[in-house]
Amino acid sequence: MGAKKETLNGIGLSKEDYAGAPSTLCRGCGHNAIVNQMIAACYEENIPPEKVVKFSGIGCSSKAPTYFLSRSFGFNGLHGRMPSLATGALFADTSLIGIGVSGDGDSASIGMGQFKHVMRRNLPLVYIIANNGVYGLTKGQISATAEEGLALKNQSQNMYMPIDIVWEALVGRASFVARGFSGDPKQLKDLFKAALHHRGMAVIDVISPCVTFNNKDDTLHSYAWGKLHEVALHELSFVPAAEIVTVDYEKGQTAKVDLHDGTHIILKKLEHGYEPGDRGAALQLLEEANRKQELVTGLIYIDPDQKTIFDIDYLPPKRLNRVPAEELRPSRESLNKVNALMV
Ligand SMILES: Cc1ncc(C[n+]2csc(CCOP(=O)(O)OP(=O)(O)O)c2C)c(N)n1
Ligand code: SF4
Ligand SMILES: [Mg+2]
To answer: 299 or 315: which carries more pLDDT confidence?
Structure first.
């Protein structure tokens, strides 16, 4: 019997070409679903691995980029500092696709200042928060996204109101804000695909259970709770540029979002009839969902036309890391001219 024939994608790569090192995360950890769906999304979207740069901070979640796209660039940075790392690297080469993976501890606790600033700058980055309500790597301390009243083994009870990552991203003015659930891998893959094509900050808060420290049926970051309380806003599908004319989508029942690279997101409305173009409506939706303790998932907000940090800072078309030093540095004559103006 011959070897199993690999199915190649549109750029001639097999799914194996998108794999990373074998995962060392616990079996059943939600973060493994993020890894698997990112591999599938990049493979199906024909993303050249060499065009991707991965970033992370510290945590079990921040280890995740090691387990996908080993042919891509990657930098595992300091705890909570992933956004500044990504800003610097993507400034140097705006042609790269940035994927950041962080945790609720990494982004909502130590990294909250960095999180808020990278939102308002609208850095083009797929920013995944693998949100489990605990610091998994350091043995399950309660994090800032944990629900009020949560009591875990060997931890005191959480007395504080949680931080909602999606709320913070919306208020921070990110241009693509979504929520996924590791127990709903198909939706997760579609959200990743859409995010990979978005030009701007694409935040995906993924409820990603820690099976070792926070997976009791009655806690809000568990598989059981998510399965019982998930309310998907729509069925999301992603359409490449060339195919849109042939797609049969029912107007009224679906919403189409045109992205800058010519691709499209088609959102089939479910019972909510929700459209993700209104930040105020998104905040209201979240407020209501939090009150009812529902896990609302899907694309919650998008503005494909919001200016990015690269537009605001008038970056030249030539990638900065390719500009030779002679061109980067102002000439002695031009410096003399500027200095002369100062006196
Ligand atoms: C400056 C600093 N403070 C504290 C730590 C210890 N530390 C490592 S990971 C972590 C929390 C990780 O939690 P989260 O981001 O939620 O990731 P998870 O492990 O839950 O996926 C902490 C507090 C550290 N590495 N560096
Ligand atoms: S400790 Fe929790 S977050 Fe870390 S790998 Fe295990 S299940 Fe995942
Ligand atoms: Mg965590």
So the answer is: 299
